[in-house]
Write a structure and sequence with these properties.
By secondary structure, this protein is α/β, with parallel strands linked by helices. The chain has nine helices and eight strands. The chain folds into two domains: about 140 residues, 3-Layer(aba) Sandwich (Rossmann fold); about 60 residues. The strands form two sheets. Strands 5-4-1-6-7-8 form a six-stranded parallel sheet, sandwiched between helices. The chain has a two-stranded antiparallel ribbon with strand order 2-3. Helix 9 links the parallel strand 7 and strand 8. Helix 1 crosses helix 4 and helix 7 packs across helix 8.
Length: about 220
């Protein structure tokens, strides 16, 4: 007898909203390589590999403070990173298993959406046309600390109550954005932040591997 949930079983969530970088797309190494180039350009402190690994467990505001990046420069740096992804991120790939996991969620009846600080052009290229077509709602280009507004907008457009949605992300700020929008958060173990940092946010789900994304459909 199969242990798979019945197709008539109640879904855990009607809407699964995904972050992009570090959640669906493996871009951390690219980010790490780009950091010191951006530091030289915008006048904040470079980091070596060991420092970057140490900072992965800390919130973004602490990381920004450690690098001496003024907050008013953050939008410029974010835009520059998006351009680097567009111009040089041709080798960036989705995590293995993402396509299958998203297809399984869609087949189960869960609507899919994307809320990312990356831009829509990069998101579409990195996810591919098949995955992009699966997205019922997209809100890209958010600031690092402004994702909650995009989440709220997607909820409104989707006409889904907050308690029926979950945001899947890889950073502490994703968990904070979900909390501000009143929705559940699922932390992924393979992204920018450490699993320990995400567990400390008390997520509704903690995903051990990409395949477990599909299980978000079920209680």
């Amino acid at each position: 007898m199969s242990d798979a949930p019945s197709t008539t079983a109640a879904l855990a969530y009607d809407l699964a909203i995904f972050d992009l970088d570090g959640t669906l797309v493996d871009s951390f190494a690219f980010f790490a390589r780009s950091h010191n180039r951006l530091a030289a350009r915008f006048g904040f402190r470079p980091l070596d590999g060991a420092q970057i690994e140490t900072l992965r467990g800390r919130p973004a505001r602490e990381i920004i403070q450690a690098t001496g990046l003024p907050l008013w420069k953050l939008p410029q740096v974010a835009n520059a990173f998006r351009r680097l992804v567009s111009e040089e991120g041709h080798d960036l790939q989705r995590f293995a298993g993402v396509d299958t996991a998203l297809a399984a969620l869609e087949q189960a009846g869960v609507r899919l959406a994307l809320v990312s600080s990356n831009n829509a052009e990069n998101g579409r290229r990195l996810l591919g046309e098949t995955n992009w077509a699966r997205l019922a709602h997209v809100a890209c280009g958010s600031s690092l600390f402004g994702k909650h507004r995009h989440l709220t907008r997607v909820l409104r457009e989707a006409r889904v109550p907050a308690h029926r949605a979950i945001y899947v992300g890889d950073q502490v700020e994703d968990a904070q954005a979900a909390a501000r929008a009143g929705i559940a958060f699922a932390g992924v173990s393979w992204g920018y932040a450490t699993p320990a940092a995400l567990r400390a946010t008390d997520p509704a789900r903690m995903l051990a591997d990409v395949e477990s994304i599909a299980a978000l459909a079920w209680p």
